[in-house]
Design a protein that fits this description.
By secondary structure, this protein is of the alpha+beta class. It is 33% helix and 22% strand. It has a domain at 68-162: K homology (KH) domain (GMP Synthetase, Chain A, domain 3).
Amino acid sequence: MTAPLRPIDPQGLAALAAKGIDDPQRIVTLKARTVCAGRFRNLTYVRDLPEFVIDEPPALLGDDTAPNPSEAALAALGACLSVGIHANATARGIRLSRIELTLEGDINVTAVWGVGDTDEEKRLGFTDIRVAIALEGDAPRERLDALIAHADRWSPVAATLRNPVALAVRPAEG
């Protein structure tokens, strides 16, 4: 095995898991604020972190300075699956040396945000997403494959993509 990835604190992970077991109905509200900086460049602010930039490629009239919104959705899915794999490897005593996800998503872009082909029957969003995960560690292949399946089952982002979500978009008050 090559050098292991920087580890997750197993005691911290156990404490976090215990909180979830102790309060299984706990819901947190995540917040973000997005501000258009001009053209299709948008700055999203989360907690006290530096802005997260989203743009469009030149083919979609952007400046190509950052991922576009759909690419960011793929990135969020990849990161969520990676976090789940790493956390569960730690919980199971498996040391990982590589987690690498390759994601592809098929999306119809002909509606161009509602100014192109706006046939009401058109399906918007991703129709297919494929994720290939290269995983290496100090466990047999079947245990590593089980980590992938477990992370897929419990990924909040994967679940959001698979399941209907109540979404309300409205004008801001004031």
